[in-house]
Design brief:
Helix content: 25-40%
Strand content: 15-25%
Largest sheet: 5 strands, parallel
Order of helices and strands: EHHEHEHEEH
Number of strands: 5
Number of helices: 5
Distance between the termini: 12 Å
CATH architecture: 3-Layer(aba) Sandwich
Radius of gyration: 15 Å
CATH class: Alpha Beta
Length: about 160
Amino acid sequence: MKLLFLDMDGVVNKGSDNAKPDRHKYSDRWSNPADRFDLYYVDPILAASVSKLVLDFDLKIVSTSTWRCGKTVEDFRELLSNRFLPGEKLVGFTPNGEADGMTRADEIRYYLLNCGFTVERYVILDDEIKANYSTKSGRFFQTSFYKGYTEAIDRKVRRFLEVAK
């Protein structure tokens, strides 16, 4: 199995999106209940690029995003599907270990050790360096909060995954 550990903010949206009047503001999102899916903005162009990657390499998605907190896998599949992403490819979430002092890299490592299946290859897309967990079979690719998942990063990820084909 090949996995994509997927963050959302700074991957499938850009910080500049938050300044547009027709987009949510981040402060609004944090002050509302976790089930306010309408406040989670995804850029359709960035989502299309990530979706193409997932489908081209038959990746399964594991959410590392704070968006997963308080959600069921079914709810999150719906959120992804309604935002131009292949929700049917979601297989789960990393644990939310922030309260226990875990970094996102720790959460990913924990998931890999406890998922119950063999992971042939994995990639991590995240805008924060604290998700940096690379091994022989997987690699972290840092996106930009202000640019999201760019074509340059897409080329690097694809080169990495081509080795596994």
